[in-house]
Design goal:
By secondary structure, this protein is mainly α. 58% of the residues lie in helices and 0% in strands.
Length: 86
């Protein structure tokens, strides 16, 4: 992967924490900073499409794993039935 050099100002306390983490993890300080830049970039990215493209009807309360699976399976089943009817 190609890299581009840049300069940034950082709080000395943050840099000290990065230095300690780099020693503890056995990686370079630059690697930790690159990971932080990547996380910041992804957190601020604007996606072309919404994360959720459809909604599903539910009972109006928080569901457990099985409840979510059942509702999604029902929605997919109904969607497939609608396609087959066309």
């Amino acid at each position: 992967m190609g890299m581009k050099r840049t300069n940034v100002y950082a709080d000395p306390e943050d840099l000290a924490i990065i230095k300690e983490a780099a020693l503890r993890r056995g990686v370079s300080e630059a690697e930790i900073i690159r990971q932080g830049i990547h996380l910041a970039a992804m957190a601020n990215r604007v996606w072309d499409e919404p994360f959720f493209s459809r909604t599903y009807r539910g009972p109006g309360r928080t569901l457990g794993k099985e409840g979510v699976r059942d509702i999604v399976a029902d929605a997919v089943r109904h969607e497939n039935e609608d396609r087959n009817a066309e």
